[in-house]
Hints:
heterodimer; A: Cytochrome Bc1 Complex, Chain D, domain 2; three-stranded mixed beta sheet; 10% strand; B: Cytochrome Bc1 Complex, Chain D, domain 2
Amino acid sequence: MKIRTLAGSVALVALTGMATWADPAEDKLVINGEIEMITHTEKAPDYIEGLSEQYSGWHFRDADTRDMERDDFDNPGMLAVDAAKEVWNTADGTEGKSCASCHGEPESLRGVRAVMPKFNEAKGEMYTLEMYINDCRTERMGAEAWGWNDADMVNMTALISYVSRGIPMNVAIDGPAAPYWEKGKEMYYTRYGQLELSCANCHEDNYGNYIRADHLSQGQINGFPTYRLKNARLNSIHSRFKGCIRDTRAETFKEGSPEFIALEVYVASRGNGLSVEGPSVRN
Amino acid sequence: MKRQTIWGLALTASFASAAMAEIAPGDVVYDEYGAVAQSLTGQPGDPARGAEIVSNKSKGNCVACHQVSALPDVPFQGNIGPALDGAGDRWSEAQLRGIVADAKKTFEGTIMPSFYKTGPYIRPGDGFTGKAPKGDLPPLLSAQEVEDVVAYLMTLKE
Lengths: 283, 158
């Protein structure tokens, strides 16, 4: 009893003492001087019990990294968008078709990223953006499926995010999505690995704090794919999930696994209301 | 009264332990507040080695979450937990041993990892490889490493 209170008060003093230098940066993101981004909301959706406010990961990066996202000329992720535009217009597969043959301009997919993942009625299962893209390739173009982390795939998700920038994330969690959301939520609070850490331990209880050199964000996915200065390439949502679980000294899950699809539904919903921001810049 | 008995036990233990094998993770005796009176090895801890384990990324990596002013050369100290400055004043050796061995027995539900435990875990991995381990996992720190860390923490006085 005595011990509990003592430690409690010590921890509290430490936390409040740190708050000033550990808070998310107060800043506003406007891209190219015209796209106003919602990177912070005063109130998270009611179904996200553990968060009062929402922050994009952008707020937790240093000033230089934040600046790289203000102008597309400074955003290294834009090279991927350009590469994807070329692929978009290039015929591939037995049908001799390109994405453009059916979809016209990439802008025709504006808004799509904001509602992914979504339940695919025709297939009767939850679909991520990657799965929709691969269905078009294999079933409509007669082309080979791309691997989850292939440059072509991640670049294409960057292009499809790019045409939705600024639109608030709005992933459905009810109806056929409900069981996926529940499963993802359970995973979010599961303490995996030998370090016994859940996503919530780091990204809900401790965002704003430092774990070694890393300024912890809320682990939102509105900014994906993210260009990371650390590995100098674009990173998919599932490869980030994989790395975070691995870092708890756990046996991780695979990209595209049913577990990560469910987790993506839940994590995406934690960001409902934040702008689609991909391709974003992180460290 | 209670304290007296615990100290008594500790004393007997440390006399007996020279001849004893180290205490396995499953056999550690925690009191109701999570403290561990008996040394895990019977050998005194080495505070210098303890300081290394506290700082080392692939060992205790305590500085990932805690600041330690006495280690100014260790970069990037985190602030998930309270600073460890003065830990040797705030806690007894037995309490510190309990916190390092399995902090969840002192602070219910804490984010702090359990360093002298072998399970049960949910999907344990082989270090940071992301793969399943081949055999049984050793605890994050050995019995002597726990003692070294405790000895170091006892030097942190204000």
